[in-house]
Every structure is written in structure tokens, then in C-alpha cells.
Protein 1
Amino acid sequence: MSERPDAGSALHLRHETWGDHEALLARTRSGSGGRVGVVETQRRPIADAGQPFHFEHGGQLDTVEVAYQTYGELDARGRNAILICHALTGSAHAAGVHNEGDVPGWWDPLIGPGKPIDTNRYFVLSTNVLGGCYGSTGPGSLNPKTNQPYGPDFPRFTIRDMVNAQKRLAESLGITSFASVVGGSMGGMQVLEWAAAYPEWVRSMVPIATTPRHSAWAIGLNDVARRAIVSDAAWKDGRYAPDAQPETGLGLARAIAMLSYRSFDSLESKFGRERVVQPRADWGDAPKPGVLGSMLSVAFEIQSYLAYQGVQLTKRFDANTYLYLTRAMDDFDLADGRGRLRDVLASMAMPALVIGIDSDVLYPESESKTLAESLPNSTYHVLRSPHGHDAFLIEFPQIAARLRRFLNDLES
Amino acid sequence: MSERPDAGSALHLRHETWGDHEALLARTRSGSGGRVGVVETQRRPIADAGQPFHFEHGGQLDTVEVAYQTYGELDARGRNAILICHALTGSAHAAGVHNEGDVPGWWDPLIGPGKPIDTNRYFVLSTNVLGGCYGSTGPGSLNPKTNQPYGPDFPRFTIRDMVNAQKRLAESLGITSFASVVGGSMGGMQVLEWAAAYPEWVRSMVPIATTPRHSAWAIGLNDVARRAIVSDAAWKDGRYAPDAQPETGLGLARAIAMLSYRSFDSLESKFGRERVVQPRADWGDAPKPGVLGSMLSVAFEIQSYLAYQGVQLTKRFDANTYLYLTRAMDDFDLADGRGRLRDVLASMAMPALVIGIDSDVLYPESESKTLAESLPNSTYHVLRSPHGHDAFLIEFPQIAARLRRFLNDLES
């Protein structure tokens, strides 16, 4: 996939490929149904001086844009829309290709004419979250008042803020409610927040491999990832130049996260103890001196894989944005300001398809099961996969079958 | 526990407490049986100019000492010894106290008069591994030729080298074989290596929460921990002064490791989303500027816990040693130079008690089960515990019952 750098983003995206190999392969199999074709990321202001965007934790901005893609046609009543919410390092580019021959968007096998999210029937909206670095206004964007990136001065934002920005965009597009709100991981948090905050807008929901409140375990993993970034001297308290990211720290943060997106079994079957035949100096630091230095070189394929994943992320993602987004995830607690979690969940009466993953290390299946049991009108489905958390970006046939049935049942 | 800094170690140990809270509490309950009492760590040369120590990957040293403790009396034939092998950041101080009132050694509830490893019957030997930083010669020791710490010039060493050093020490103490060789995690690797390399010395073995070859998953976790250390500018390619460790990097490495030593459930029940009431600036970095800076402060108890664990390790452990030891673990493959793993394991005919942990994230129970199934004369026991990998340092009553029965059956 190629995310084109846009004028407002301070980040140069220097590489065409992103994400994990399996996910990439899975996306190239388009699934049953037709193709969305060539798409373009659009951007739209959702605030101005007369209607600034207010952040949950304080602060406001007059200039906020949201990047988005749409597939299909909106009906006259504005009621046939489905909202797709992306995960931590995702973008609005869920389906189609930017140019012929590109690898398609991250959920392409599920979205298109005749596909489970059928663009002959639905108007599909996919946005880059508020605060993201794929076209929406965020820490990497230029502050119009200083002509410098916001960096660490960008207002703190939350999952609720992301949802409020999506709502402004949806209203401006003429959408009046969503047939479904769908997303995995951080996308699933947006799904749940939508359903709790604006139930009249959410006629059904599909939260996948997610949680209504971030666990100690998940907070801990984000904490060490953030520390990897801020420990990098190149981070410069967040005031690095756009072309001088803290690459070592961001790459390490990504490597830590990748382990939690995978599983013991998936890494063992893919890499085991395979050794690197040809070391790639560009995927690691310069060799260190001494006996120990030679021992620190990349020896095993798993090390090479983690290094590669890190390098790839530094080419496409902004370090400050990573800090803000992971903190928004850690802060996420659906019950905040709403009473007890079980009461909040019990009040969410729209049909819900909850999907868990049996090998998920980050959001264990038990969290998804408990979520499904706590929702009054839910169906639970488990993805059986060796791929861990990332299975929601890989196991398309399983997701397709369930999603198709769920959406069809809503119509009948 | 207090590990006294010794003259040869370049590392100052500035803090009395180490390890995890549960493990510490569990150790203070001494279990059934009498106490070992006050113990002292001793040191003994195992090489000299006439008989240098040769390392598996090349290199040799004339001056090598091993730190150790013993409990009980060796019998006339030198056959009543049990060897205790420690894990990554452990020491020879397995039982007893250094001073009255101290927290006892890391396996004290299992070792003593009348305890499962009964010092009325057995002569218990516990060593600090070759290359460790608790008294044995390692990267933190002074190189007698330069009067500087070896640092990154210390020879590369392996689990096999650790075992060979232990064997020299055991021979010098008059031991002729071990009634059992016992250890968890990296200690379990030593157990397996002992049994494969010197089966005539190992009359029985107890490998706990370990693996005969390090998995891609475990290598990956060690890889990111090492990268955290070498990314710290204070590491200085391994040539830091003894009182100027790369504390940020080593602390982060420890935090990453701690997550893998625990489990989703244990962290959730201990911390959940509890917030820090009184931030401890000394457990984290100085506050950062900007909106983002305030968001980077320690907000959740899990963050505070991970920061604390990191700070504690930097006070008692040497960063280069951490790099060497984790690489020795990653390199560990019992089959190296011995043929196929299943044949190697099938040839290890001594009675074995294999213990796995149902919540172990780092060495999943499946690894222990497979190990037990591959050994021809094994008993398998699973520790049922929420505590993850660290359960072998916490669940003493469960271990005690099984260990007592196993050792008694050997005698009868």
C-alpha cells in the first residue's frame, strides 16, 4: 500500500510497503466479490473559528481536518452507511488501491461490490482518526499559528474525541445513522465508544479483538513502547524535525508491539531458530565493537523480522503520534463518567457481533467473551487462528462468513 | 535479600530488596522444616595458567572464579549432592540469610533441614553461573591484565560453559555425582545441559518452566530487551564506568522482561486500572515538557510497578552481564552438535521431574509438556498459578509437595 504524504502532514512516507507479511498476502487475495478499484483519500475540515473542536481533556482547535475514504453511494435518507474504524497504525485506506497494481487497503477482502460489506448496498466510510498521521490533524501536522509541527503541544485526545470528530464528518457528509460501526483493536474501542455515546447513530456494531477498558497488561506493553521512544535522544522532548525521527526508539517500540500482535506458535512456525543468512545492516544499528559487539548482531530470523518491522514503521509513522495514540488507548475506559461498566454495557441494546481471537496475546479471548456476555443483544464468534491479535487483519474468510451473515440478518 | 558486593565485581549493589513482591513474600514463609540459617557466599578458582578455562565459542581465561553457597554435609563418597541452578538475574543465594532478619534466599522454602531438599540428607550446592555478576567471573569483573572491567571483551559464553564451570567446581569440592540437578528457566537449561553432557553425573533432574531450545518468541523478547540497553547512550558500547550504568536501558529491559514473567490475569488482578496516587519521580525519568510531557508521567500503577522493577534491577545487576546472559539463553539448543533433539532427549534416561506452569507466557506449558513426553523416564507436573513464569519462585507449597515425593521415590 502507498499512503501518499499530504501537505499538512509533517511526516514523509518513504516506503511503499507496510504491515506484516501475512496481512499483506491476505489482502492481495481479494475474496469473493468485485473490487472497489482506485480510491483517493479525501480531507475535510470539521471545525472552524465559529465552531472549534473541543477536546475531552481541555483545549480546542479551530482548524481540524479528517482524512477519509468512501466506497459506494449514500442513500437519500443517509441511513445506509457503515463506518470502518482502524487500529493503532492504520489509516483511512481500508479498501481499493491508490494506483493500479498497488496492494489494496487493509480490509479490502471484506469491502466491495458483493463482498460482506457490500458497496452495492452500503455507503462505507473509513476515516483516519483524529490525531493520526495519515492525513487527519494530529501531532505531526503543522500548527497554522507557528508553521511548525504541533509535536508535544498538540492537545491530549481520547477515543471519545476520535468518535466526536468522526461524527462531525459523518454529519457533514449527510449521514444520519450507521447501519453498522465496525473495527478491531483500537478500532473496536471506537466502535464501543460510538455505541455508548451515540446509540441512536449505531444501529449495529462489530467490535473485534478489543476491550471496553484497557487492561494493566495492555497498558504495560504500551508503557514500555512509549519509554523506548522517549529514551531515544533523537526524540528531543518531541521537538524533532520531521525528517529526523527518533527511529531507534520508534523501531524498538514497534518491535515490542509486534511480539504482542503475534503468538508463540505463529513466531515458532514462521521463524523457529532459523538463522539469518545475509545480515541486513540497514535493519539494525551499526555493529558494536568487542566480543559482545559481534554477539549483538542480528543472528536469528526473528530478530531480523522485528528489526525490519521497526524500520518499516519509522518510514510511515510519526513517533509523537504513536505516543498520543497509545496513551488514548490506555486511557480508554468505556465506563468513564457513565457509571458501572456492566450497566453501561447492559444499556447498549443494538445488535452486536463480537469477535475474539483464540490466540490473541494482547486482548485475550476472555475479554471478548466477557464483552459479548455483557451486551444484551450480542452474537459471539471466535476466530481460530495461530496468528494472534493480528488475525483480524489476516483471517478474512472466517471474518467474511460471519460478517456477511450478521449484516444479512439485520436486513431481514 | 542482600547480595554483598565482592571485591572482584565491578557492580555496586545499592539496594536491599530485589525481585517481585509476591516472590519476596513467598520466601519469607519458610515452609515446613527447619531453617538453613546464616550463610555466606564463597568463591573458588576453577582455572589457572596451567589449566585455563576454554570457552565453547573460543577464547580462554586463566583466572576464573565461581561464587557458591552450600547447605548440609557432603557424604564420604561425594554422592549426596544436589545442584541448584539459578535463573537469569538470580544468584548463588538460594537458601538461608546473609544476616539475621534478612529476607532469605530465592528458594529458601524448599531447602533446609526437613524441607523437600533436605539438608539433613543432601549436600546442596548453589552456584552463581559463570559470567554472572554475583561473584563469579564475568563481564563485570576486573580483567587482571588491565585492571579494568572486561565489559564487552569478556569471552562469549554459553549454557554449556556454565555447566563446565560448575563441574570443575563440583570436582574440586569432592562431589562425584549429583543425586539431582534442579533449576527453573535459565536454571532449567543448565539442568538439561548437565544431563546431556554428563549423564553419569546426573542421577536425576528437575527442569522447571524451561525449554531444550530457545523459541523464536523468547529470542524476540530478549532481543528487544537487549536493544533497550544498547540504545542507551550511557551504555557506551559496553565501556561504561561501574558507577555509571545505562540505567534507563537496563530498567526498560527489565520492564519488558517483567511483563513476560507475569500474565494478563496476574497483572489485572494486582493492578487493573488503579491510578498512581503519589508519583515517584525517582522511578521514572524527569518530567517532559508540553502537553505530551504531562501524559508521559506515570499514571497507572502498572506503569509504576514496571518502573520500580527496572530501577531495582539497575541497583543490583550489570547491564553487560544482562546482554551476555540473554544471548547465552538465545543460543541454547540442547541438540547443538548432538544430532536430532528428539534423539538427544530420548537418550536421557535418568528419572526426571518436569514442571510446567499453566499461565507461563514466556515458556508456555506446551513446551514443558513436550519436554516431559520426549524424556523416557519422566514425571510431569503442572503448577496451577495465576503468576505466570515467575510461579516457580512463588508457588512453593505446590513445588514442595512434588519435589519431596520425587526425591523420596528416588531413595526407595
Protein 2
Amino acid sequence: MRQFVVLGHEVPLTADLSLDDLTGAGRLDVLCRCVTSAFCLSHAIREDTRVWLVLQDEFTIRFEGSELRNLNPDERSTAALVRGALDEKDGAIGHMAAESSPGVSISRRGLAGVLDELDGTLLELHEAGGPVVESDVPGDPAFVLSDHRNFTAREAELLAERADRRVRLGPERLHADHAITVAHNWLDTGGFARY
Amino acid sequence: MRQFVVLGHEVPLTADLSLDDLTGAGRLDVLCRCVTSAFCLSHAIREDTRVWLVLQDEFTIRFEGSELRNLNPDERSTAALVRGALDEKDGAIGHMAAESSPGVSISRRGLAGVLDELDGTLLELHEAGGPVVESDVPGDPAFVLSDHRNFTAREAELLAERADRRVRLGPERLHADHAITVAHNWLDTGGFARY
């Protein structure tokens, strides 16, 4: 299982966001591309992948690759899935999730709550991390990334405490969705070895 | 200079396409993500990059990294740049390009015409190619990729004739925009060596 936790700091927690202005909706476009980068292969879905979108450290939308039915590679239709999940947020009570469409559910959880759910190797993607190629390829990696904002002090502290490794994917600072694509490629190729 | 040639087989050649339905506009969403993957770094543009969107083998929209001013990472605003270029296509006469916004221009050229303009090493991204890591990192690479469709017989023939190398980026079939991200990472790291 590959997992990606993406921290959205500014996406509004209301379902009345406009699909015509995803950048204006707290840069929801970034999060949508993270979801599609995590799941979309050419004419296939990566079923062994799970994505957690943590919104304002308060609600988390989970996408489960093995159950997803309506995911398309474009931003707008993915944003509609996010909007649908936000529309169900009152049904999320305690840590019980509310499902809004196949494979998509929302729960009342921040980053700490999501980290509690993860198993496998926790990797923080960070420009100050070590080269990813110096690290062996974990069997069940969970990557944590931030949207267009840096990690907050509290998030950075949590990750420093909980992450197994801090790695970087190259000399350039990548968008979160591009980082997910590179991370998948590193895993697909067993560390750039199998093609 | 890094160049990416992306073949769009179904995008309509009219400027009246709807920004609310990019997938319905011949999968323009795919081409828009190719453009943003080629240029967008976190808070920066890759200035030493050029993208050619070849539309129906008839018109080509060129994006010049060093001149781009209004490119944002989301699909919709990038689609507006494509629409703006299509709006200027009557001004493209012979091989003379018409500029529609800073760094964006359209010309009457198909794939063959674009290949004539390329210098450097021509790489065809193809699932039957050799592992990219077995290839040295060229100084001025030009990659050719296709949208959600395979190369047509004519395109495949042209590429077989003109490409210097045929490479693959991993064992999975990637979307074109994800392939661009991986190709950049390969180049950024000098063949997964420099981080």
C-alpha cells in the first residue's frame, strides 16, 4: 500500500465552493492534482494507493484506490468529489467517517489523527531531506506533503517526531502533485532500477 | 534548452471551446497539464523550457518559458491561454507565428514542421523504448509525447525516422503530463545522481 497525506491549509470547509474558480477556493486545484497524480495511470487506477487530504487540520477526506469509481484525471471533476465529501461533513461524528461516493469519505481528523492511522514507513518530503536514492525503497511508504504553503510550525514538529525519514526528490522545489508523480516513479522502478 | 512536443489529436481548432468542460473539448485538460508540468516549479517557471502543442497535425501552439508571463498551474487558466492562441490562428500565415500573449504563439505547422525546428537530441517516449536510465543525459533534449491517444501510424513513422532514441520511464504507462514530470526529474538530477 502506498499512502499520500496532503495538507491543505486554505481550502474552505464549505460545500458551496465554485468549480469555476478552484485556485480561488484556497488553491483546491493543487489538492485535486495531488489526487489524480496519486491514482491515475494511463487508462487505469492505482488500486493499491490511498490519499488523505487534510483540510485546515480539522477535516480529512480519504480516497481509497481499490474502491474509487468516479475519478477522472481532470481537476474539475475531482473538485466535485471534494465538494461532495464536504457536503457530507455533518455526518462525520467522532472519528467515524461519512462516505460521499465510492471510495471517498470524510472524517473529523487533523494531521495527528491521520498519522495515528498510518502504518508502514513515514516519509516527509522536504527540501532539506536526504536524496531519496540514498534510501532503500520501503514496502509500505506513506508520504506527507504540503500544498502551496510550507508546513506550519505545529505540523513540522509533529513530523519531526513521527517521520521515519525526511527525503528530497531532486534539486528543484516541486509542486506537491509533481512530487507525488516522482515518488510513484521511484517506487514503480524499485529505486530507478527496474524498467 | 528542454523541449516537449505534445500531440493533441482531438482538441477542436476553434476558439469557442468551453472552459467549463475541458475533457469534452477533445481532452484539452491533458494538454493543459502537460504545459503546466513542463513549466511550473514551486513558485517559479522553468525558463529554459519550450513546449509545442501540435493540434490535429495542423496548428501548433508554442509556449516559450523565458517569455511566459501569465501561466498559472491550474488547468482552466492554461486552457484560456490555448483558447486565446486559437483565437489568433487566422493571423498565422505560412510558417509565420501569431503571438496571442507573452510567450504564447500559434503557427500553421504539423508534427513534421515542428520536428524541422528542433535541435538537440530527439527522444520518443514510448512503452517499448529502452529504460531511460541506460541512456546518458542529453544536453538539449526534445521529448515527443502523445495525449490520451496513441501515436497515429503517420506520426509513429515520422518518429521512427527522426528520433535519436526511444525510451521508457518506468514499467507503468503514465499520462503524458506525468511523463513530463518524470523526464524533468531525470534531467534535474543528471540521471538520478545529483540531489
